[in-house]
Design goal:
- The structure holds three protein chains of three kinds.
- Chain A is an alpha/beta fold.
- In chain A, helix 2 runs antiparallel to helix 6.
- The relative contact order of chain A is 0.18.
- Chain B is of the alpha+beta class.
- Chain B has a domain of 234 residues: Cytochrome-c3 Hydrogenase, chain B (Orthogonal Bundle).
- Chain B has 13 helices and eight strands.
- In chain B, strands 1-2-3 form a three-stranded antiparallel beta sheet. A three-stranded antiparallel beta sheet of chain B has the order 6-7-8.
- In chain B, helix 10 packs parallel to helix 12.
- Chain C is α+β, with helices and mostly antiparallel strands.
- In chain C, 28% of the residues lie in helices and 22% in strands.
- Chain C has five helices and five strands.
- In chain C, strands 1-2-5-4-3 form a five-stranded mixed beta sheet, with helices on one face.
- Chain C is globular, with a radius of gyration of 24 Å.
- The chains are: A alpha/beta, B alpha+beta, C alpha+beta.
- Chains B and C meet through helix 1, strand 6, strand 7, strand 8 and helix 11 of B and strand 3 and helix 5 of C.
């Protein structure tokens, strides 16, 4: 891996005030490097795929179908999926439908606090192209400009069965080593940050929320 | 009465600022509470909303009247049909269209099923907030059976887009009544179980009795409606006071309580679920089996609604839900305002009630007011 | 309620009410001048039983250069709703605050401040963000704010999204165009 590319120095943290700047880390994130032995990496991916912990953050209306998904009727626990209350413990971020600008700020913060390996799944049509709110002044149209997306589940609303199919698809992607959104985020860090700051006008958080 | 909570000097070191939400399991939907605590006692609370703001009122101004009908149901996510009904009713009143009696019955059935589903979701929420996750598992599963009925009736689980201006989109499927009765029996059986597990539970009782007391004289100045108001001893319900659809032909009782705390509000909603089941059974028994389900409509692609303004309201699970619309005779509406009951419950009321409670009870208090953020910010 | 008009006539002795209109038996509208509106609303609340503020909202009449505030009041005993309209100058929109009459009024005024830029001096937390955060444009609910253009410019739409004119689309569906050449006859 070309580390030269990432040796751009510490993050500026421009949005923070001078006294706050000391409180936050300005280190740059580093991409994940796979194990040199392919078999080990494959095994690790298999392990990762079978323990997907969702972040319990209902960012939009898609969260309404997560209740049936996680309870007795559809019971996603049997697929190794469970809800976690904090980003530090979770590995899958479900963007439940449209994201408003105000929520995007919290999404970025939560996403960056998640520890790798981490994956982003978008529910519904709205994160893809704005859906019904394509002309709204407060919702994003293309979510993948702001955070890397590993899987889209389309529909409005996506049914719990589709969510389950999506979980299986995500597992397949992880096992094949194709769910590399977190790495794409770090490799194109400047581009993502520029996009995020273009829509979030009052940027008052560190550039990377460790 | 409306004095803001006294200012607090955070730099004194006695207080701690704590954010509950938006990324927090103990919050209803996507909103946040900014709590200031002393020990584990809350001394100040500010509600922050807007995380779900989509600008519906603006979007509806630039869509034609028929294009608006699939949009409105998305305003309140867990309870979309009230939006559909109110939008249809507003447009019908402004255009003078009358929906046929059969459609009125189907609409009532649809709304009451939605109410039951929404209350089941809420019942799970209040159970989970006080450590009874079993109830949550049960009720969300049973709500799903109702969603199955919706799917059969309308083709969709959540956003039905079923009640159109002028009537409903289709007739009931064959054999629907029997399957609906079957689900109602199952829900009724579940409710008796929930009564044993939740309402007779000593932990639940101890924690909820006296929590979040709303004095009677606070109800009108704070604009409190719905079960929150009825639990404070007011027998006001739009289904009785200003009957719409076929509610004047249905028999049901108004449930009130006097304690006005979290337990009383929960109990009122619990009994209202039984009343809802009673109403649904009457609907199924007495619904006309033939006749049109849609009024004769003009060409909706060039639908010009005469200039006017009106306000129509309905009793949803949380209180008075209303649509205020101004039209100017063109193909587009001039202004629409959606009055969601959570608007006042989650902001002005919550900020008042939270003061003096324990941090651990904030989630339960929030659920007991039954607020849905999407209808606040729209 | 027949005596709603009577009630407004009684109030008309002390206030200059205009545009009194009965929409339904349980719903009426009237218009009051800006200076008298809050006094009228207070008297309606205290003396006439309109104790419930249903909502407070605003309509933008850009052609006439005015905002029309609507205070919707409800009387539980008479089961009657009354909408009080107040016209404001669009360029200097300012209105007396009613946050000391109803608790939720402060929230409505905060929303109107953000969405239309109407000022309500004295209302608590008026200038705090309500729904928007870091908003750098004119208030979004104003008629001159073009939300679609703004969305395309700031949020970039994805290619492949099309739209059809509904009437043209239905025409082609219902009446497929015939080719100009006469059908080749015979079978």
């Amino acid at each position: 891996m070309d580390m030269q590319k990432y040796a751009l120095g510490p993050l500026p943290n421009d949005g923070l005030s001078a006294e706050d700047r000391d409180l936050f880390s300005d280190a740059r994130p580093v991409p994940y490097e796979p194990y040199p032995v392919a078999v080990v990496e494959k095994f690790v991916n298999w392990v990762r795929a079978n323990s997907l912990w969702l972040l319990a953050f209902g960012t939009g209306c898609g969260a309404i179908e997560l209740n049936p998904l996680m309870t007795a009727r559809f019971d996603a626990y049997r697929m190794g999926v469970q809800m976690r209350p904090t980003p530090r413990q979770s590995s899958v971020f479900i963007i439940g439908g449209y994201a408003s600008v105000k929520t995007l700020k919290r999404i970025i913060r939560s996403y960056e606090q998640m520890q790798g390996p981490k994956f982003v799944v978008c529910l519904g049509i709205c994160p893809i192209n704005g859906g019904m709110y394509w002309d709204s002044y407060n919702t994003l149209n293309k979510f993948d400009e702001y955070l890397p997306v590993d899987l889209y589940i389309t529909g409005c609303m996506p049914r719990p069965e589709v969510l389950m199919a999506g979980v299986l698809e995500l597992k397949k992607k992880i096992k094949e080593g194709r769910a590399d959104g977190a790495n794409r985020y770090i490799e194109n860090f400047e581009w993502y940050k520029a996009n995020q700051k273009r829509v979030i006008k009052d940027w008052n958080m560190p550039d990377y929320n460790w | 009465m409306f004095e803001p909570n006294p200012p607090i000097d955070l730099s004194s070191g006695k207080y701690l600022k704590l954010w509950q939400g938006p990324q927090h399991p103990g919050i209803t939907g996507n909103m946040s509470l900014e709590l200031i605590t002393r020990g584990d006692e809350v001394v100040d609370c500010k509600t922050h909303v807007g995380y779900l703001h989509r600008g519906f009122e603006k979007l509806m101004e630039r869509r034609t009247f028929i294009q608006n009908f699939p949009v409105v149901c998305r305003i309140a996510v867990p309870e979309p049909t009230f939006n559909e009904y109110l939008y249809a009713a507003v447009v019908e009143e402004l255009t003078g269209i009358e929906s046929p009696p059969r459609a009125e019955w189907i609409r009532t059935l649809n709304l009451e099923l939605m109410r039951l589903a929404s209350y089941l979701m809420w019942l799970g929420g209040i159970g989970a907030a006080f450590g009874q996750s079993t109830v949550y598992q049960w009720t969300v599963t049973h709500r799903d059976y109702i969603l199955d009925l919706f799917e059969e009736m309308t083709g969709a689980r959540i956003y039905h887009m079923y009640i159109v201006p002028g009537g409903v989109r289709g007739r009931l499927p064959e054999g629907f009544e029997d399957r609906c009765r079957d689900v109602l029996n199952r829900v009724e059986k579940l409710l008796h179980d929930v009564e044993k597990v939740l309402f007779n539970n000593v932990v639940f009782k101890t924690r909820t009795k006296g929590l979040g007391h709303i004095p009677k004289e606070m109800v009108d100045p704070y604009g409190i409606t719905g079960p929150n108001q009825r639990a404070a001893g007011f027998s006001r319900d739009l289904r009785k006071d200003a009957p719409y659809l076929v509610y004047d032909q249905l028999e049901f009782d108004l449930i009130t309580a006097t304690e006005s705390d979290t337990y009383a509000r929960s109990w009122v909603r619990y009994l209202e679920m039984h009343e809802g089941i009673r109403m649904l059974r009457q609907c199924l028994d007495r619904m006309p089996q033939d006749g049109p389900f849609q009024a004769k409509m003009p060409n909706v692609l060039h639908w010009e609604v005469p200039a006017g303004e009106t306000y129509i309201k309905a009793e949803c699970t949380r209180g008075e839900y209303g649509y205020y619309m101004v039209t100017d005779g063109s193909e587009y509406l001039r202004r629409v305002h959606v009055r969601g009951p959570s608007y006042t419950h989650a902001i002005a009321l919550m900020e008042k009630l939270a003061v003096g409670t324990n941090i651990a009870d904030i989630a339960g208090l929030m659920v007991s007011l039954h607020t849905y953020p999407p209808e606040i910010e729209r | 309620m027949a005596n709603a008009i009577q009630l407004l006539a009684d109030f008309g002795r002390n206030f200059t009410l205009s545009d009194i209109r009965e929409q339904r038996v349980d719903l009426a509208f009237c218009k009051a001048p800006k200076e008298q509106a809050v006094r009228l609303i207070r008297e309606l609340r205290d003396d006439a039983g309109y104790t419930h503020l249903v909502f407070l909202t605003n309509t933008d009449y850009i052609e006439q250069g005015i905002f029309t505030l609507t205070y919707m009041l409800h009387n539980y005993d008479a089961r009657h709703t009354l909408g009080v309209h107040v016209d404001l100058d669009r360029n200097a929109a300012e209105m007396e605050s009613i946050h000391n009459l109803w608790a939720q009024a402060a929230t409505y005024q905060r929303e109107l401040r953000e969405m239309y830029g109407i000022r309500f001096p004295g209302s608590p937390r008026l200038d705090e963000d309500f729904c928007l955060e870091g908003w750098d444009q004119i208030p979004p609910m104003l008629k001159e704010f073009d939300t679609a253009a703004f969305s395309l410019e700031r949020f970039h739409s994805r290619e492949g999204r099309g739209s059809v004119d509904p009437s043209e689309h239905m025409k082609t569906l219902l009446y497929p165009t015939h080719s100009d050449e006469p059908s080749s006859g015979g079978s």
